[in-house]
């Protein structure tokens, strides 16, 4: 297959039951991504950028359209029609998602969260332990926090942990939903360094960033989305 991801005619709406209204989030979105590319998506807040990514990850179920993904395990699979079992496997082993927010099991330490993510990829416990320490050190998460619960972390610390947990798995496809929004410049450069490393290793990425300067020299192509109804290549 020429493309690792081929989206055609993607539509998604939300119903506001208390108001009896239906809100169109995105309509007629089509995009094709080759293996190893970094594709950037830009647009104003509320334009539908995150909705597109969440449909790819199947956090949202699209109303219409195809999201054809060239899976290592399943071959060509439509993520819009995949079973929950198939999506669970793909999220564990092939497709990563990083957002501004950390969703973690309660009473699980930072070290345990990252180590579990690595072990899901089939890495043995000893190697997973080493890789866990390397990634936590890379993102300069205070060593005293490694065996603490993320609920006690600051927003920036939670975000760095969230990025570390997703990137350490080295997924085939990585979706980045404004992951650097609340990071300082030094932390952003740590993220950029790891993105570039993953790109060199062949990871395909689709990213949304408010910091266009950060994204500019990473992207192979950039798309602009306007009011959810049009997605056009701008380079």
From TrEMBL:
Pfam families: ABC_tran. SMART domains: AAA. InterPro entries: AAA+_ATPase (IPR003593), ABC_transporter-like_ATP-bd (IPR003439), ABC_transpr_LolD-like (IPR015854), CP_lyase_PhnL (IPR012701), P-loop_NTPase (IPR027417). It comes from the Bacteria. The keyword Lyase applies. GO terms for cellular component: plasma membrane. Residues 5-234 form the ABC transporter domain. Gene3D superfamilies: P-loop containing nucleotide triphosphate hydrolases. Keywords: ATP-binding, Lyase, Nucleotide-binding. GO terms for molecular function: ATP binding; ATP hydrolysis activity; lyase activity; transmembrane transporter activity. This is Phosphonate C-P lyase system protein PhnL. It comes from Metabacillus mangrovi.
